Task: structure prediction
Amino acid sequence: MASNEPDLWNLAAAGGEGDGRPRFPAWRRALAGLRTLKARLTLAAIGCLVVGIGSISMLSLAQVERGLLAQTKSRELVEAARTAGELAQRVVALQQALRLTAERIDPAVERNEDALERQLLAQPALLQQFSTLFLAAPDGRVRVVIDDAGSRRPGLSIADRAYFRLTVAERRPVISDPVPSRIGGDPVVVFSHPIVRQGRVTAVLGGAIRLNSRGLAASLIDHEAGVDSGELLALSDDSGRVIAHPSRDMLLGELALEPRFREALEDWRRQGSPVEPAGLLLHQPGEIVSAAGVAGTGWVVWRALPESVLLAPLHTARVQALQHAAVVIAVLAVLTLLLVRQLLEPLRRLEERARRLFDASQGIHEGWPADRGEIGSLAQALRHVGAERAQLEQFTGELVGKLGSVMAAAPLGIAFTRDQRFELVSRTWCALLQREES
Result:
């Protein structure tokens, strides 16, 4: 079977010269070449390679990404709970230090403010843990204050402070909400411990930690927060007010003002604002946010890790994988092109031989590709057609020769016509009409 389609490799090279075919612009030859069977098979194979390798790469990387996110969420949940646990241990340590100091204050020292100052100044370990120490009377009057500036007796009253009233009323240690300091005005958290004698509170010993200094939470958050990782840690109370944050402007502000925690805070509040020491994961677009409660305080540790930073190495690996896949596809495409060309070489030879099917100068059984399968069957069929045609032409020639001999020997003029045209006439017929045979 002869094909009228141009050959992808021969047409572009020959350009139609020397074979009787017209020349075409290069772009038209290239476009025509894409219609050949070789080109279509090659493009189909390349398409399958692109889809196959691309799908496998994307599915594999997507699975790795999901696994990485799940693993990181579990890790962040554990880290939030661990950080909250460390804070709880520090709180307990501070309360114990305050309790031991309060137990060492005997009634005689408590009544003498000079002796009281000397005893508190003799507690360097306690002064390192708290930015301010103070002793207040049951009516709220601050008798002694000790801080970095030394000791003084300011005569201030903290009777209106909720933590102080709760300490006196329930005779138990209390941790205050973040409040502005009555002495320096800085935001502080106050640890208070009652001194109870004969069933009544005779004094309240307190220690304050400035939130804008490297105190209890600030030092932990500064230590944990990774600058390179983009991780953000913060500490809030159970109402969402900021106790510790890398930015001092956020102190005592609403955690909702931090964009990286805004939707997570709303999710937390929808769940009932749980202060859960075991931790929980919260929804925040583009972030992995975990929160855990600090036992015994009502504080909540917040951790945010951007997914973009976490997935950046994976995205880089994805680009590299696509680049490698492109190189592999290009190499496989060239190999496929060569393989298709090799496999379809018998078809090209069959096409060339079919074009010369009626060429009498070539033998009937010469030039056919020796191949199996469909191409071999097609070549065999065309060879049979050629042989049948040669036999028919031979038989027709013999028949015409015999008919010519009969017409030449006949005494009458004989003529054969078709569609009112003379096809075959005898010499006698031409003589009768005075015409030449030609």
About this structure: Residues 410 and 428 are 8 Å apart (CA to CA).
